[in-house]
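retry 2 of 3: previous attempt timed out while embedding manganese (II) ion. Reduced batch size to 1 and resubmitted. Inputs unchanged:
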Amino acid sequence: MNTNRLGMHMMLYTSTWSEPDARVVFERAKSFGYDFVELLMFDADTVDVALTRRLIQEYDLPVEATVCGAPDADLSSDDPEIVRRGEAAIARGIEVAGDIGATLVGGPNFSAVQRYHSPPSAAARERIVESYARLADRAASAGLRLGLEALNRYESNFVNTLAQAADIVRKVGSSSLFVHADLFHMNMEEPCLAAAVKDVGDVLGYVHVAESNRGALGTGNTDWPAFFTALAEIGYDGPITFESFSPAVLGEEMTALLALWRVPWTDPDIVARDALTFMRDHIDRAHHSKA
Ligand code: LER
Ligand code: MN
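retry 2 succeeded.
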């Protein structure tokens, strides 16, 4: 039995959210049979809320959101002004996500997506718990939940494993926070996919299904049966989104940010459609093998 809602990341098609770009995302996701679309907000202020709400209605397809930190808006910084901007940017992301009816805001909102050249300070690690306590309250008021996506070491120095994300969630102790897992990052940082999932079973709230090479599902070395079986064993019934990136559809800036130096695919229609079948098959098989 497949109880997870399955989403398609907007960046299968575009990193920009103009009406024509957003329309392609909604149209394709709907036609393939996805349950929702993920909108990645680098700057929530730039998101056209009215347009997004209109498209959600028109296509009858909800949106879930993610927010990334930025070098000048970074909760993991020791510069109070940068931290203040980081918290404000997440707060704005929560507000916009609430306005478009999202149930969650995930993503690496605790730091910028970039290579850091030194570890975060102990003070930043303590301070961030206070920031997330305030943000959890905001999320609750907006009627949604806020998640922390563990990224690999080359994209953040702050939260690289599910256990590190869970540590912050548990320290805050709010049910409005959750751990956001991404298989691409987990493949680099977790010694065992199944154990990593089981250790955060109580706080896992969102999953990015991404191949070890970030290409089409099944073209990398991810142990998908082990992962989906672990999800079934913890009884995970939350949303799961397919995430894959290719320079074939993304602009130069995003290609550089994500270090996409090769072209894993050129036709997102094939990759997105096949990913839905792939995820459904694995979820069904995992539930049967568990039963
Ligand atoms: C970035 O590496 C990533 O995994 C995205 O989901 C950021 O939201
Ligand atoms: Mn991700």
